[in-house]
């Protein structure tokens, strides 16, 4: 167990009372209207948006919650609906005291709207069965920058936003619509990004990462993961992916000019290249299989190799190649006119499968070397 993981685990255990939020919510829904009123407090704030270009949010570590942000071209103000919730608490006086101890600040400093939360140190809900959350519903004009930094908050943002930067730990991140840059990081939460372009950096240590409809990269799409899972659909551009034990699945990939690199230690790599526009793609794994599916118009120099000591095979199916080099451990050839390079190498143990668009004329599973 790493030191970083131990620290995060201690923090998580301190908030054991907050982890029961969902079960507490179900109980709260069964309470009387009077009880519900005593366990929640809400307010709405409106802030002129004309001079605000960025929103910043950084809550304390002893509270969880969510931010749900939407944009609308027809609004002139930033509308913030704030709701503080308590669960598993029946005492009206104690509930009121806890709610009053949680304050939300909204401050504009040099075109930046700062949203903050203040909570007591060693708050009385920590380590108890009391659940405390703060939820934000934000509506604002499009084209702003959002920056968030939180351990226990979930983020659900729908743009278009110019830039989004979210650094989280346990919360989930879901972002749709980014025009210039996205920097999304979490350690244990699910991460989703759709409809984005520009400079994109993704870092998800242990959660599932889903990317869809990403295009127009100003530099290769950068993704890092240790033990999560990567599922990408409709990606256009170069990628820089490095994983340890996180399976990589990319479907409907348009490979444009530039250099792409995918590195995996122990996880399979499955690529479906829908369109190939003259590029260089390098794939390296230690102990995992690689499958590449190509379609009509694929044209590249193909280089593939496996370890001489670890075991494995190289197979093709439906992919016409003009063979230039072949033996038990390597296969090289030219597909089409040879525009670009597809370079695959397995350092220890694993199989390589190269699939093309054409049906086979034999009943064999594929050509093997």
Radius of gyration: 25 Å
How much beta, percentage-wise?
over 45%
How many domains make up the coordinates? 2
- State the helicity in percent bands: 10-25%
- Structural class by helix and strand composition: mainly beta
Describe this structure in words.
This protein is mainly beta and 369 residues long. The chain has two domains: 14-141, no CATH class; 190-369, no CATH class. Helices cover 11% and strands 54% of the residues. It contains five helices and 27 strands. It has a 27-stranded mixed sheet that branches. The radius of gyration is 25 Å and the shape is elongated. The two termini are 42 Å apart. The model is unreliable at 5-10, 12-38 and 361-366 (pLDDT under 50).
Structural key phrases:
369 residues; mainly beta; 27-stranded mixed beta sheet; 5 helices; 27 strands; elongated
Short description:
Helix content is 11%, strand content 54%. The protein is mainly β. The model is unreliable at 5-10, 12-38 and 361-366 (pLDDT under 50).
Task: Describe the SSE topology.
Blueprint: H1 3-14, H2 16-19, H3 21-29, H4 33-38, E1 40-48, E2 54-57, E3 64-71, E4 77-87, H5 92-101, E5 103-109, E6 112-118, E7 131-140, E8 145-150, E9 153-168, E10 173-186, E11 191-204, E12 208-217, E13 221-225, E14 229-236, E15 239-243, E16 248-255, E17 259-264, E18 269-276, E19 280-285, E20 290-294, E21 300-305, E22 314-317, E23 322-327, E24 330-335, E25 341-346, E26 352-355, E27 367-368
